[in-house]
């Protein structure tokens, strides 16, 4: 069984306030989020794509849409009060319907890679769609990032729902997934994931937002300081599939236990960095309990903006935009070059179905997958 832990209905010291409806320990105020719905365009079959603007009146404004359950924009102030968008993406729907590197999307059924596009479950081998060399990436050719999600407003946010039929992209079971975005009083964008299936299957959902705390399209992220609370990471082979080793970060360029500039060691003569073209690896988080905990913290010294990532997941994929090459033009027509953003994808480990020693991503029929991640922006 996949163990994605969340205290049902609990208030996690200011983290789950959107769900609990209690006062913030930091602000002393009840969380009141304005939700505004508007059209973002239409699909070729005429279905309306809606975008929802979530604002808590305290500095965080997020825009999420039902196509791909995508985070289209997150605006936060800097130390001088200047508000900019810190998420890469597009100004219109057409950009998201073209080939792009999963900007802001929910990816699944299996976020990250499955080696050779196959895994065994209940004594049967399943072959899933291969779309990354010989491997499967982010759920196949038609993953959750390309799905049209149903939407309904909920207190302090919006809930998106999609279904994936038995055999979709090769995965077993009729699966229903829900992703709920809410804004918390302490400037957090909270993401709650749930899923159920009528057959045993594997599930690994995550959000694939690209962050630049200087502002999207505003230079590189090499000066950003990163902290990742992890003593180990999972080395990869040439196909970026984990070897199975849990390697200590100590003495390597992968040691971010203390805040370190992303660019400080990214070009070192290190085999793993060469394989990833930079950082594109899973860190094994130092878990202390079963609830949402701080996993990573990014700081932009220029603007003072801080991004804290809290999760109940066992791993986080830290990716430094190594495959961006300037060919994709995003918001305002700005080209996004290599290392102009980073991703912190909270998740189970890549290729877990093929590594019995990794935390299991199996979801038993009739049971519920649950996990929570919060992207929080403390005052600069």
Describe the structure.
This protein has 380 residues and is mainly beta. Helix content is 4%, strand content 36%. The protein is built from three helices and 27 strands. It has a nine-stranded antiparallel sheet with strand order 11-12-13-14-27-23-22-17-20. β4 and β5 (83-85) form a beta hairpin. The protein is globular and about 60 Å long. The protein starts with 16 loop residues before the first helix and ends with a strand. The relative contact order is 0.18. The model is unreliable at 1-29 (pLDDT under 50).
Layout of strands and helices, then pairs:
Layout: H1 17-20, E1 34-42, E2 48-55, E3 61-65, E4 71-77, E5 83-85, H2 93-97, E6 106-107, E7 113-114, E8 118-121, E9 124-127, E10 136-137, E11 150-154, E12 157-164, E13 175-184, E14 188-197, E15 201-202, E16 206-207, E17 225-228, E18 230-234, E19 247-248, E20 260-261, H3 271-276, E21 280-285, E22 293-299, E23 306-311, E24 315-319, E25 343-347, E26 362-363, E27 368-376
Antiparallel strand pairs: 1-2, 2-3, 3-4, 4-5, 6-16, 7-10, 8-9, 11-12, 12-13, 13-14, 14-27, 15-26, 17-20, 17-22, 18-19, 18-21, 21-24, 22-23, 23-27, 24-25
